Amino acid sequence: MKAFFKERLIYFIAVIITMAAGLASRRFGELLPNFVHEHFGDALWAAMIYFGVRMVWINRSKELALIVSLIFSWAVECSQMIQTPLLNEVRSTVLGALILGRGFLVMDLLRYAVGILCVYGMDRYFLRNKKA
């Protein structure tokens, strides 16, 4: 039981660190290389989603977390094609824009996939011997 909570705590901390890094990449973007500024925020958002899924479904496979994270992040991106007054009002707030985004970009789908695949790889590498 203790290991169960330890794993959740690890993923919770990963969510917080990833969230902080993503917000910092937005806030201090002009200080970062252009490539980092343009791409890392979206990749980190998707990475945060992966860690959140792992935290909630700790006993499920990493592969399921990868698939659910991709579907969720791509669904949020595709939802940006829906432009209603209520959704646009939510998106006009800082929190709404951070969660729902503002406009659909195909490039974001790639950024999300790369972010999720990177942290999935890190997750497998760092926790591969956990059950051994």
UniProtKB/TrEMBL annotation:
<dbReference type="InterPro" id="IPR021257">
    <property type="entry name" value="DUF2809"/>
</dbReference>
<feature type="transmembrane region" description="Helical">
    <location>
        <begin position="9"/>
        <end position="28"/>
    </location>
</feature>
<protein>
    <submittedName>
        <fullName>DUF2809 domain-containing protein</fullName>
    </submittedName>
</protein>
<feature type="transmembrane region" description="Helical">
    <location>
        <begin position="64"/>
        <end position="82"/>
    </location>
</feature>
<keyword id="KW-0472">Membrane</keyword>
<keyword id="KW-1133">Transmembrane helix</keyword>
<keyword id="KW-0812">Transmembrane</keyword>
<feature type="transmembrane region" description="Helical">
    <location>
        <begin position="94"/>
        <end position="122"/>
    </location>
</feature>
<feature type="transmembrane region" description="Helical">
    <location>
        <begin position="40"/>
        <end position="57"/>
    </location>
</feature>
<dbReference type="Pfam" id="PF10990">
    <property type="entry name" value="DUF2809"/>
</dbReference>
